[in-house]
From TrEMBL, chains A, B:
Keyword terms: CBS domain, Cell membrane, Magnesium, Membrane, Metal-binding, Transmembrane, Transmembrane helix, Transport
Organism field: Symbiobacterium terraclitae
Membrane topology: Multi-pass membrane protein
Oligomer status and interactors: Homodimer.
Domain of life: Bacteria
Family: Belongs to the SLC41A transporter family.
UniProt main location, coarse: membrane
PANTHER family: MAGNESIUM TRANSPORTER MGTE (PTHR43773)
Record-linked SMART domains: CBS, MgtE_N
Protein name: Magnesium transporter MgtE
Function: Acts as a magnesium transporter.
Source taxonomy: Bacteria, Bacillati, Bacillota, Clostridia, Eubacteriales
Domain CBS: 138-200, 202-258
InterPro entries associated with the record: CBS_dom (IPR000644), CBS_dom_sf (IPR046342), Mg_transptr_MgtE_intracell_dom (IPR006668), MgtE_N_sf (IPR038076), MgtE_transporter (IPR006669), SLC41_membr_dom (IPR006667), SLC41_membr_dom_sf (IPR036739)
Entry's transmembrane regions: 287-304, 316-340, 361-382, 388-414, 426-452
Length: 453, 453
């Protein structure tokens, strides 16, 4: 929240206390809905209800749509029915559908009855699509026209429909069955002769997505073709809705957060959580990973146990356990990060996989050799023993090399299994390399010390 | 690359070999510039030059602008001057400025001379702004008009300027000094009476950014206010350019990749690297981190060394070193991930820091208690020793708790120091917690075993 908004927040609270409603309304009228949303977030329930009452239907609808769904539901259910209706009527169908999905069934039912028949039908239809598909994020507010009409007709249609800001920049051309056959941007319409037939000026190779397409795929399409909105069609090619660029930005952000959370070994469930919320949902999201990895790490403990007789004779070996395990984990995490991100953004394609993994292996060889040499010399000096130096150096070299190969290969394997490569998190790969690094380290130690002791 | 494009790629290569230029031109004319860009990426240098020669100036300009800057530079410098001019003339000023920044100075100089005086001036001006600022990503193609003109004038102006698709959706209103005073969306213009004075219909509280603003801040502004473009002003409030939503998407993606790379302990330098490119730049990007962390991990080795006499007596202690260090690292990485992402997306604000860290500490207490209990019992059964069970259980509990607190606190401290919290990577925090976990584990072991042995 910037300084200016904090000032307005303070003023709002004072005006509410002093019942200066008219002044407050004037103050709030000046604000952008996105700023109003930030303001609402900071207010207590009662203050919030009073402020929403002061806002006009369209402004309230836009501001509320910017809030978390949980907060939206709390506000709308607390409002008197007529105010709730005024807001819902102005909300775009996709925002309303998301909100209704969050409500208790009985609340949703009674609110749907307040809405016009048409809006309620739109919302019910949108609610049938899974949240993370094109159908789940599309809006049904779009302007469509027949190919036999003229540019002037299309502009009239736009003027009449007066759609909301994000949805007004393309006019879609459909046939009698509602099938998508062309598109015109508002810019093209303005530049066209008013009496030009749509058919003769429309673009016919329209980029579109299917209602069932994953939201990330939809976002990538909009990103690739620099679109402001993408039309969504069904199996019959019938135009069902559009996904606008502002929603695409939110999807890309959500997907990036999801990937970042998975990479950090946090379940995506936590993405929905409030950073200041109750701790139990967060515990449920993190505990399975942590506990699972702790048990997995016992495998490396088992390896160490097998070599305790050796460590009894050369206690200095224990000193380098964390360096060995940590170094391998870090090297693997680096490779994993680069490969998982490459797969997520589509920068790395299926046919490149072999070459990328081979490149990581070569990087591992060089990095392993350098780190092995440096750490080997360090260990030698520290322990006054060339043998410890040799063991540590050689193990670091081999471990880093293996770690780079594993870090790049594991996400690829996971993807081949049909899973999201992002589930191969840094913590997961680090726990796996704990075991291999202990095996390599102690085996080399046993070999070398067996020869010299 | 999808199946359809792969087919077109094959056709393109065949047609090139058989010199069927006219057919190829028809084939390529059907393609979207973004698909043409993908095609160009797959072609050999010579084929690529031949294909670019066949494309019209505007199409070639759009397609080339989609490529990596390195590839753009290679293509443009290899073209005959008149074709290069045709393409550069059609390129938007911001794309051209990015391209010129990539060229060798002599190439840039001779190409700039080919351009019209006006375009060259725009490009030179844009090149003065740092890459990652609003000035560096803005384009100078925008439509501006005086407040005393009418809606019809504005539409005429749009028609005359016929700007590129992304820049046509707002008309900015400026005063005699070129200062930004208002804005009108194309939609608002269409709905307005043709003879309405701009002054009376424009919105005056315009969201704008400053030329020196960081690109991430610009992107967040566009995202927050659901804009299609944001105007960029200088110190005198003079309108200097606009940043369009398609560039904002690329910025957000770039910033997400940067954060992901840092979280994985990879330098952002690697973001610029080709996944199949030479290995040396990647080695340079990763080696410092890895080697630094290896040395840092020697501190935990030093702690272990201090306790070797204890381990000599109770060798079972060594078995749990990796579990102890790994568990703490993983718990810290989880907390770190949530906090760093919260700071990056602006979801977590300065005044929340204390409450978020305190929440993480409480999560750590519960998770630590549960994991400590489970692992303690496991260790007890494994080693047939209640004392080992007690040591492992207690250490896991304390270590996970400390790790959660450290994982949430370290990025906050880094931010307070004025650095990007994303530099606190998983590998970094895991290496730090290696040391604390060894200290806790062996201290508890010494205490308990000292009492019972």
């Amino acid at each position: 929240m910037n300084q200016e908004l904090i000032g307005i927040l303070d003023q709002t609270i004072v005006m509410l206390q002093q019942h200066r409603e008219d002044e407050l309304r004037t103050l709030l009228d000046e604000l952008h809905p996105a700023d109003l949303a930030e303001l609402l977030e900071e207010l207590e329930d009662e203050q919030r209800a009073a402020v929403v009452q002061l806002m006009s239907g369209p402004t309230a609808a836009e501001a509320i749509a910017e809030l978390e769904l949980e907060e939206q539901a709390a506000i709308v259910t607390a409002l008197p029915p007529e105010k709730a209706k005024a807001i819902l009527d102005e909300m775009s169908a996709d925002d309303a559908a998301d909100l209704f999905a969050e409500l208790e069934p009985e609340d949703a039912g009674s609110l749907l009855q307040l809405m016009t028949q048409e809006d309620a039908t739109d919302v019910r239809e949108l609610m049938t699509f899974p949240e993370d598909t094109a159908g789940g994020i599309m809006t049904t507010e779009f302007v469509a026209i027949g190919a036999q009409r003229t540019a002037a007709d299309a502009i009239d249609e736009l003027r009449r429909a007066a759609p909301s800001a994000e949805t007004a920049y393309y006019v879609y051309v459909v046939d009698e069955q509602g099938r998508l056959v062309g598109v015109l941007s508002l810019r093209e319409l303005i530049v066209a002769q008013p009496d030009a037939e749509i058919r003769s000026i429309m673009r016919t190779n329209v980029v579109s997505v299917h209602v069932n397409d994953d939201q990330e795929e939809v976002a990538r399409t909009v990103q690739k073709y620099n679109l402001l909105a993408v039309p969504v069609v069904d199996d019959q090619d019938v135009l069902r809705g559009i996904v606008t660029v502002d929603d695409v930005i939110d999807v890309l952000e959500e997907e990036a957060t999801e990937d970042i959370f998975r990479a950090g070994g946090v379940s995506d469930a936590e993405q929905q959580l409030d950073l200041e919320g109750p701790i139990w949902p967060a515990i449920r999201a993190r505990l399975p990973w942590l506990l699972g990895l702790l048990f997995l790490s016992l495998v490396s403990g088992k390896v160490i146990e097998g070599f305790t007789p050796l460590m009894d004779r050369v206690t200095a070996l224990a000193i380098f356990i964390t360096t060995m395990a940590g170094g391998a984990g870090n090297a693997a995490t680096q490779a994993l990060t680069v490969v998982v991100r490459g797969l997520a953004t589509g920068e790395m394609e299926r046919d490149q996989v072999g070459r990328v993994v081979w490149r990581e292996a070569r990087i591992g060889i060089v990095i392993g050799a350098i780190c092995g040499l440096v750490l080997g010399v360090t260990a030698m000096v520290w322990n006054h023993s060339p043998w410890i130096g040799l063991i540590v150096g050689l193990s670091i070299a081999i471990n880093l090399m293996l770690a780079k190969a594993a870090g790049s290969l594991v996400p690829v394997i996971i993807q081949r299994l049909g899973l999201d490569p992002a589930v191969a998190s840094g913590p997961f790969i680090a726990t796996i390399t704990d075991t291999t690094s202990m095996l390599v380290y102690f085996s080399i130690a046993a070999l070398i010390l067996g020869a010299v002791l």
